[in-house]
């Protein structure tokens, strides 16, 4: 076990170091530079000679700049320009070492470096406005930056090598490529951004489910802790009255012992108050946060589907929602539905069906949980909401705690509602629990 934990810890540490490694600014700039240099070698030449070529370098550079939009664009442009020039000169040397000339190779490829430098300057100008730009505007602006960068490259090539740049078809190709590259690359960037947003949303939803599950369980624990505190309060008062009665009767020794017991009970009460205060800090029951009935039902089904899988049971869940509104009382509602639905899961054999419905009847919102388990025997129906009563036993033969349904009953009552075990009116459903809660109370925080 210790070795497994150590291995998992080491793995998480390695992942953390890897994430930190790629968040390093220098590493990101190096990635942009090398990625652009390599991508630039995948090219075609639409016009005769090497005057103008269509490569993936420009697209890769733009995409990486958009994805890493917190980089210093000017610094990245300078480093990328130098890397591209050096990379192409090295390739010239490898392909024809006997004909290689540093001066000639540098003169040929300097214009390409100037293209990326100009492109970086253009991106730097719009860097602060990138988050506010819509896709169409961003595509048009990057196309103009690309065209301007190619223009600077062509002028530089003409000045260094004497290339003929006054060919109309060449400029037509340059403009067309700039537009296609701008729209294609920004479209690809948008797709990646949407995928990242979806992944982030999925992760946030998972965390929300976990938080709601914890809060629903916490609500039940705090509810019973408060109930216990009321009992302790009454017990303290009764114990103190017994102490005063003993003292009045002259039972000094017994009265002192009783006073000591009273003080210990009072300490238990104070400890319980501290625990309750600490638990209440973990969630704000009076929070302005609201959830819709649809979301509450969805979280209930999702959580219990995982619970059924954990128990190796094949359960078919269905949800029926006939009314939908938002409520700030989502934690007690989740607590009620989770308890009833998890009980239904436990009542099933290896497979079965569960339906959870929400509807409105008059001034009440009705939550109903149906299951196709073995049902509850007639003689047990009047006892199921009593604390300690249970029809479920652990594998070793010991009875379960039996506080589930009494727990639900008390929470429903505290909300001014009522819970009943209904007669199943179909052959499919064996157990039907119906909870009625005042709609006005639930909508109060809407």
Automatic annotation (TrEMBL):
Record has Cell inner membrane as a keyword: no
Domain Histidine kinase positions: 333-441
Domain of life: Bacteria
Membrane-spanning parts: 51-69, 76-96, 108-126, 172-197
Signal peptide interval: none
GO biological process, one term: phosphorelay signal transduction system
Catalyzed reactions: ATP + protein L-histidine = ADP + protein N-phospho-L-histidine
Class of the enzyme per the UniProt entry, highest EC level: transferase
Keywords tagged on the record: ATP-binding, Kinase, Membrane, Nucleotide-binding, Phosphoprotein, Transferase, Transmembrane, Transmembrane helix, Two-component regulatory system
Gene3D superfamilies linked to this entry: Histidine kinase-like ATPase, C-terminal domain (3.30.565.10)
Annotated GO MF terms: ATP binding; protein histidine kinase activity
SMART domains: HATPase_c
Record-listed E.C. numbers: 2.7.13.3
Name of the protein: histidine kinase
């Amino acid at each position: 076990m210790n070795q497994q934990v150590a291995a998992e810890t080491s793995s998480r540490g390695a992942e953390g170091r890897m994430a930190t490694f790629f968040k390093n600014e220098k590493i990101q700039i190096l990635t942009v530079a090398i990625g652009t240099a390599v991508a630039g070698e995948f090219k075609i030449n639409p016009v005769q000679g090497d005057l103008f070529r269509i490569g993936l370098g420009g697209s890769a550079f733009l995409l990486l700049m958009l994805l890493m939009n917190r980089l210093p664009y000017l610094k990245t442009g300078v480093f990328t320009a130098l890397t591209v020039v050096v990379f192409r000169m090295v390739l010239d040397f490898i392909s024809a070492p006997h004909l290689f000339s540093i001066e000639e190779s540098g003169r040929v490829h300097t214009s390409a470096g100037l293209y990326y430098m100009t492109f970086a300057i253009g991106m730097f100008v719009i860097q602060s406005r990138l988050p506010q730009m819509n896709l169409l505007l961003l595509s048009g602006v990057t196309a103009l930056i690309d065209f301007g960068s190619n223009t600077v490259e062509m002028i530089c090539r003409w000045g260094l090598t004497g290339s003929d740049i006054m060919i109309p078809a060449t400029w037509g190709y340059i403009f067309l490529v700039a537009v296609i590259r701008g729209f294609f690359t920004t479209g690809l960037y948008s797709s990646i951004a949407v995928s990242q947003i979806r992944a982030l949303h999925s992760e946030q939803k998972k965390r929300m489910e976990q938080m709601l599950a914890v809060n629903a369980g916490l609500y039940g624990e705090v509810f019973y802790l408060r109930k216990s505190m009321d009992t302790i309060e009454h017990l303290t008062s009764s114990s103190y009255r017994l102490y005063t009665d003993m003292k009045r009767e002259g039972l000094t020794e017994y009265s002192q012992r009783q006073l000591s017991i009273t003080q210990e009970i009072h300490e238990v009460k104070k400890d319980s108050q501290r625990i309750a205060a600490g638990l209440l800090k973990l969630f704000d029951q009076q929070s302005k946060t609201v959830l819709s009935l649809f979301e509450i039902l969805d979280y209930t089904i999702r959580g219990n589907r995982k619970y059924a899988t954990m128990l190796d049971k094949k359960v078919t869940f269905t949800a029926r929602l006939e009314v939908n509104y938002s409520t700030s009382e989502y934690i007690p509602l989740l607590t009620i539905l989770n308890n009833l639905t998890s009980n239904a899961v436990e009542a099933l054999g290896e497979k079965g069906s569960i339906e959870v419905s929400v509807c409105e009847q008059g001034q009440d919102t009705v939550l109903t949980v149906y299951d196709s388990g073995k049902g509850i025997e007639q003689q047990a129906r009047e006892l199921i909401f009593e604390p300690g009563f249970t029809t479920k036993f652990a594998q070793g033969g010991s009875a379960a705690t039996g506080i589930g349904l009494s727990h639900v009953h008390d929470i429903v009552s505290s909300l001014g509602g009522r819970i009943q075990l209904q007669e199943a009116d179909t052959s499919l459903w064996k157990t039907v629990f119906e909870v009625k809660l005042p709609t006005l109370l639930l909508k109060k925080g809407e």
